[in-house]
Amino acid sequence: MTIEYATRYRTRSHIPAEPGRPYFIEKGKGDRAHLFGDLVTIYAGGEQTENTFNFFTVEGPKGDLVPAHSHPDTHEVFYVTDGAVRLFVEDLDGNQQERLLTPGDFGFVPKNCPHAYRMERHHSRVVGVAAGPGGTFERFFENLGVPTDDLTLPHSPVVPALGTFRTVPEQYDVRFLPDHQWHTGSACQGRPTP
């Protein structure tokens, strides 16, 4: 059983806003948002961790490439629990690689490294953790996407207006890279980059 709290982001939340308070959340009952074809669920964020890390899941169908982006101040972890996710990453020297991650596989993307991912199997799930000196970016998902109380994937993709890509990311340590090209072995057909 969870207690619902109001936060400055939502009229209700299962996550207490103040730090230093233990809490529990039932499976799937964190703060949820639809973005593209995915369901993002936040379990812990900046308010609870004094902006040191966040913890979230992204669930989605087999689909398009998430646009290339980087986080200037945030390191990001990808841990696959269901399905398969292809992670594309470029290091600071410009070396690109991609890896198909399946349940139990882990990927680490240091700050400033361009990256993108694509769900390769229907109903794939990634556990994400982001941490860094710049704070956390978990509220990016509901501000670029649409907050939801649903426990399911969106019925149709939630594609933000182009203007949103220019404003919302600046607040959340996300820099989209519209001209980025992937030169790895897998064909990167996907969502147009903003």
Automatic annotation (TrEMBL):
Residue stretches making up the Cupin type-2 domain: 60-119
Instruction: Specify one Pfam family.
Output: Cupin_2
Q: Where is the signal peptide?
A: none
Q: Which PANTHER family match?
A: PUTATIVE (AFU_ORTHOLOGUE AFUA_8G07350)-RELATED
Q: What is this protein called?
A: Cupin type-2 domain-containing protein
This protein's species is: Streptomyces mashuensis
